[in-house]
Give the backbone structure.
Amino acid sequence: MDLNQLKKQLRDFAEQRDWQGFHAPKNLVMAMNVEVAELMEHFQWLTEEQSEKLDAKTFDEVQYEVADVFIYLVRLADRLGVDLDAVVEEKIKRNAAKYPVDKCQGSAAKYTEYE
Amino acid sequence: MDLNQLKKQLRDFAEQRDWQGFHAPKNLVMAMNVEVAELMEHFQWLTEEQSEKLDAKTFDEVQYEVADVFIYLVRLADRLGVDLDAVVEEKIKRNAAKYPVDKCQGSAAKYTEYE
Amino acid sequence: MDLNQLKKQLRDFAEQRDWQGFHAPKNLVMAMNVEVAELMEHFQWLTEEQSEKLDAKTFDEVQYEVADVFIYLVRLADRLGVDLDAVVEEKIKRNAAKYPVDKCQGSAAKYTEYE
Amino acid sequence: MDLNQLKKQLRDFAEQRDWQGFHAPKNLVMAMNVEVAELMEHFQWLTEEQSEKLDAKTFDEVQYEVADVFIYLVRLADRLGVDLDAVVEEKIKRNAAKYPVDKCQGSAAKYTEYE
C-alpha cells in the first residue's frame, strides 16, 4: 500500500465534497474513535477464544470496520502532517528498547509493568 | 509502506515475548481504543482551529500516539486475517457510491444524512 | 445521592475556575470518553475471570476512574439539560420491553439479536 | 436517585435474563465505552457552539444515550463493588485540592497543566 497515494486520494475525496471544514483534526479523532467503538461492539460479549474465530457474517462486518478506522487514521495523519512511515518505524524501535525480549516473556505482570 | 512486512514484524515482536495469549482480537481492540483515547486527550480542550496548528511539543506526542494506533490496527488485522489493502480499497469505493459528490457539498446536514 | 445537588456542586466548581468555555458538551463528551478509556486500560489484558477479582491496588485505581466517569457524566447532563432521573427510569422501562425475560435467557446470540 | 436501589434493580434485570456471564466487569467497561461513542457520534461534526443547543430530535436521542452510559456505569459499579457515593465525594475533594481556584482561572494552559 502506498500511504502517500492513499492520503492524496482521501484528501481529494473530502475536497470534492467540501468536507475540509468538518475534517479538523479534533473532529477526525472523534470520528475515528467512534469507528473503533463500532468495531469493539462486535467483541464485547465474546470470550477471547470466540474473538479468535469469528463467524463469516461477523468477520465481514468487522473487516470493514477495520477499514473505516484505517481510512480515518490515514486522513488524520494527512491533516496533521504526520509522516506515518517514519513514526511507525521509530515507534517500533522504541518499543523494542522498552520491552527487551528477555524481560518480557509472556508475563502479564511484566507486560503491564513495562507498558 | 509494506503492510504485509509490517504485519510480520509485529507478529515476530509479539511471539518473541510470548504475548500471543494477550493478543486475542478482543484485547487488541480494547488496547487500540485506549491508544485512540490517549490521542484524543490532546484535543479535548482545543478548539477546532487550535487542533489545526498544534505546538511542537503536542505535535511530537500526537504523532507517536498516531503511530501507536496504527501499530495496533495492523497487529489486529493480522490476528483477524483481514487483508487491509483489499478492504480499504473496497471501502473507498463504497464510500464514493454512498456519498455522491453532487449531493454532499459541504453540508453538515447532508453529511450526517448520508452517513 | 442527590443528583441535582451534585450537578450544582460541579457547576459551581467549573464556574469558580472559569471553565465554562471548555465545558461545551462536545468537549465534555470527549473528556468522559478519555476517562472511560483510562478505566478500560486496567482491564485490557485481564481475562474476564480476572476482571471479577481485582487486586487491591488495581481496585483502588479503578474505583476513582469510575468516579471520574460519573462526575463527567453528571456534569454533561447538567450542561445539556438532561433530567437523569427521568431518562434513566424511562430507559429501564424501554429495556424491559425490548428484552422480554422469556426470550433472552442467557443466550449471547439472543442478547445480541435483541440489542 | 437512590443508587443502591438502582444497582439492585439492574442486577435483578440481568439475573432474570441470565446475563451475569456476559456482565464480567471487562465486558461491561467495553459496552459502556461503546455507548459513550454512540453519544459522541452526535457531536463529532458539530462546533462547540452547536453542541450547546441541540435540535429537538438530536436532544432526544442524546438524552437516552446519556441514560445508557449511566445505566452501564451503575451496573459496573455494582459488579465491581464500588461505592459510588463515597468515591464521587472523595474524588471531588481531591479535585478541589488539585485545582485550586486561584491558580486555575479560565486558562486552558493552566487547566491542562493541572490535569
Summary: Residues 56-80 of chain C form the longest helix (25 residues). Chain C touches chain B at residues 22, 27, 30-31, 33-34, 36-38, 40-41, 43-45 (CB under 8 Å).
